Amino acid sequence: MADFSRLCIHQVTLLHQWDMADFLAGMRRHGIPATAIWRDKLKETGAAETRRMIDGEGLAVTSLCAAGLVTSPDPISAAAAMDEVRRALDEAAMIGASNLMFVAGGVDPHEKSIEAARTRTLERLALLAPHARAVGVKLALEPLHPMVCATRSVLSTLALANDWCDALADDDAFAIALDTYAVWWDPNLAAEIARAGRRLIAFHVNDWLADTRDVRLDRGMMGDGLIDIRAIRQKVEAAGYTGYIEVEIFSERDWWRRDPDEVVDIIKGRYRSVV
Amino acid sequence: MADFSRLCIHQVTLLHQWDMADFLAGMRRHGIPATAIWRDKLKETGAAETRRMIDGEGLAVTSLCAAGLVTSPDPISAAAAMDEVRRALDEAAMIGASNLMFVAGGVDPHEKSIEAARTRTLERLALLAPHARAVGVKLALEPLHPMVCATRSVLSTLALANDWCDALADDDAFAIALDTYAVWWDPNLAAEIARAGRRLIAFHVNDWLADTRDVRLDRGMMGDGLIDIRAIRQKVEAAGYTGYIEVEIFSERDWWRRDPDEVVDIIKGRYRSVV
Questions:
Q1: Taking a C-beta distance cutoff of 8 angstroms, is the pair B272, B2 a contact?
Q2: Could you read off the pLDDT tens digit of each residue along chain A, which spans 275 residues?
Q3: Do A185 and B156 touch (CB under 8 A)?
Q4: A227 closest CA partner among A179, A193, A177
Q5: Of A117, A169, B41, B109, which Cα lies nearest the Cα of B117?
Q6: What pLDDT digit, counting tens, does each position of B39-90 carry?
Q7: How far apart are the CA of A158 and the nearest CA of chain B, in angstroms?
Q8: Could you write out the DSSP letters of every residue in A167-190?
Q9: Cis before A238? omega within 30
Q10: Mutation test of the interface with chain A: which of B112, B162, B205, B218, choosing the one with the most A Cβ atoms within 10 A?
Q11: pTM of this prediction?
């Protein structure tokens, strides 16, 4: 009998197939103990009602995903973005998530300075820390793949996430989320996972397809690509991580189009064989 | 009067518009002093005839581009790939190029180990060094963007290129080529450019488009994207680089479809304004 006690399926993996109620019921029906909640879906249902539904199904929640995009050089835009992060922290607290997935934001097309965007992100994270501590939700700094640094996140390596955590020096407000897709190419991955250690609060799995067709929405099912997921999981666990293994697949061409029960069955099979 | 004495246009930038003869004549007509030669085009014309045509137009040649793909775990495939690199080194020598752009190769889909692919690449580079020295052509180690590490090159960062040069310890056989597109996201870029120093033998410019649609063939014209190209050029020159500034744009949707004389005129304009 396979042990799925640490398997988590991120709601975005079934983005187009199920609404909140069907998704949460599906997780319970399939014996998946935990989920991460996608914020666009949360907005449809509302945080209080979502919490009631999660508790009703007896599920654990890891993260609310995602908020951020705080890199703007315009102070008014930046203030609005930070208020939005604070609202997301409140929502994460309401649904019982220990952390909010933080996506930094991209490069301003007029300024064209990735260094300036990084400097501002770090400054703004420091300003968000009091609210995170107040509501008891950590900001999970998630390095994203360098191919989305222009538009989604200038936090492009685990080393930079570790550097930021060092600079912020606030383990009650900040943690690190690791995604196999974002970091598998990194020559420094093993050393930086060890360095992250207990900062690791989430571990996302999925795969890199050889014929990748889109920089954001073409992730693969574990086992269908080039990543040695088990080797990365072993490094993450050797660093002290004991949390859920979270399946997060953005897949416009394939997994978002399939029967959701089939997707969950395949996830369970691949979790056993390659994760 | 603008100074184009350091401007180089890589042949691949006009891949679909011009054959070898038209391309070389076009470069001379537009007053472009140097070019890099695309190996598929060279095969159509032959190395000896290409050299005659280049000399006839009075052009300088930087690199022959590209050869490599030596990561296979299968010894027979690897030996064939290495022989192909040696042939490319011979061709580079014949056309008067100082270096051959080396593209490592990707990850084996069965083995799924990027670490093993990197280890083998370094071993095989050492075996290629005697031939490079014998023909007087350097292998230019070019980090490619992490988004092509699965299929094109496991050499994903400038730091790794510097590490490999340290390990190989053979400045007569190895150098480093830097491409803005491949490295602009790297938090360690400034330090690693300084570390590369005189190893830098080529500097490629082009831009990252916000709406990138393909992981290989959707590069932008300088100024159309998010990269601060001039800032990177300044770092490269501060490290001691005095060579050509080489425009290399793979662009299935745009620049490969335009009138080639218009493309060259726009390159000259952007070279002045943003490079």
A1: yes
A2: 579 999 999 999 999 999 999 999 999 999 999 999 999 999 999 999 999 999 999 999 999 999 999 999 999 999 999 999 999 999 999 999 999 999 999 999 999 999 999 999 999 999 999 999 999 999 999 999 999 999 999 999 999 999 999 999 999 999 999 999 999 999 999 999 999 999 999 999 999 999 999 999 999 999 999 999 999 999 999 999 999 999 999 999 999 999 999 999 999 999 999 99
A3: yes
A4: A179
A5: B109
A6: 999 999 999 999 999 999 999 999 999 999 999 999 999 999 999 999 999 9
A7: 11
A8: HH--TTTEEEEEEHHHHTT-TTHH
A9: no
A10: B112
A11: 0.97
What is the DSSP pairing of strand B200-205 with strand A245-247?
Answer: unpaired
Q: What CA–CA distance (Å, rounded) separates B107 from B112?
A: 6
> Could you give the CA distance from residue B59 to residue B61 in angstroms, rounded to a whole number?
7
Does A185 sit within 8 Å of B149, measured CB to CB?
Answer: yes
Token digits for A137? Answer: 């939700």
How many residues does the structure list for chain A? 275
Cβ distance B185 to A228 less than 8 Å, yes or no, reads no
**Tokens 């709406």, located at residue:** B211
Question: Do B185 and A114 lie within an 8 Å CB cutoff?
Answer: yes
Dihedral over Cα of B64, B57, B12, B159: its sign: positive
- A99-103 and B245-247 strand pairing: unpaired
Length of chain B in terms of residues written: 275
CATH of domain A7-274: 3.20.20.150
Residues in chain A whose beta carbon is closer than 8 A to a beta carbon of chain B? 106-107, 109, 112-114, 118, 145-147, 149-151, 154, 156-157, 159-160, 163, 184-188, 208, 210, 212-215, 225-228, 231
User: What CA–CA distance (Å, rounded) separates B206 from B226?
Assistant: 10
Nearest CA in chain A to B146: A185
C-alpha torsion sign, points A105, A110, A114, A119: negative
Which of A152, A162, A80 minimizes the C-alpha distance to A122?
A: A162
Q: Determine the Cα–Cα distance for residues B242 and B184; give it in Å rounded to an integer.
A: 20
Q: What is the pLDDT of residues A217-275, one digit of tens each?
A: 999 999 999 999 999 999 999 999 999 999 999 999 999 999 999 999 999 999 999 99
Closest CA to A107 of B203, B209, B181: B209
Residues of chain B neighbouring A188 (CB-CB closer than 8 A): 159
| Domain extent listing, chain A | 7-274
Closest to B227 (Cβ–Cβ): which among A112, A185, A187? A112
